[in-house]
Amino acid sequence: MTEHVDTSPTPANGSRGGPARPAPGTPGIDVPDPRGRTGLDRHGRDLTGNDRVRVLDVEVLACDWSVLRRTTFDYRHSDGHWSREQRETYDRGDGATILLYDPDRRTVLLTRQFRLPAYVNGHPDGMLLEAAAGLLDGDDPREAIRREAAEETGRAVHDVEHVFDAFMSPGSVTERLGFFAAPYDASAPGTDTAGVAAEGEDIAVVELPFTEALDLVRTGAIADAKTIMLLQWAALDGPFGPSAVSPRGAR
Description:
Blueprint: E1 3-5, E2 53-63, E3 67-76, E4 82-91, E5 95-102, E6 107-114, H1 116-120, E7 127-130, E8 132-135, H2 141-153, E9 161-167, E10 176-183, E11 193-194, E12 203-209, H3 210-219, H4 225-236
């Protein structure tokens, strides 16, 4: 929801109608936060790609693992008038996700893990079926998703295909997610559980026929957006799409 604020001119020091300046010694601003970062209030101040937007101020509301900011900006509407707006953005870094598939057996490899935000927002038990995914943590997206696939499914993948990129919740979350796909070797040693225990991960590895996975999307049993997007890509343009070469004996 748009929050309109006072559109009268704001002095450079932000004294009238503007946010209070952070006190000296504020974590994430001029002293390190728990992750050793400073200057988090500078992010987004120097954007010049849209002349209808003038960023006035960026406040850091919280910075533990991720960063919650409130940005005040002037916006020129299509009819020419300006309004002053505020938005809160949640910055957790960019990430990547991958669909692992076996084209011969026509299966996909997913994970099942507990997701607290889904649980508190009405999911029956918070246990979501998902494609493997994770944050980049400064790595190249291809390298990051190979790492995440190994950690979350126990499978090493090599022929990684970049499918597309997408902003997953552009109204409030800055994350841009890289979507990938890769075949996996079903004959290689696998595992039923995976995850990094030190990070609190307890992940079940779930192999499903591709058609069953699509049915779970239709019934709502798969309710994770990135997984739905990858499964639909696979059905339209990917390894199980109309133009894909069917393996011998497949129907």
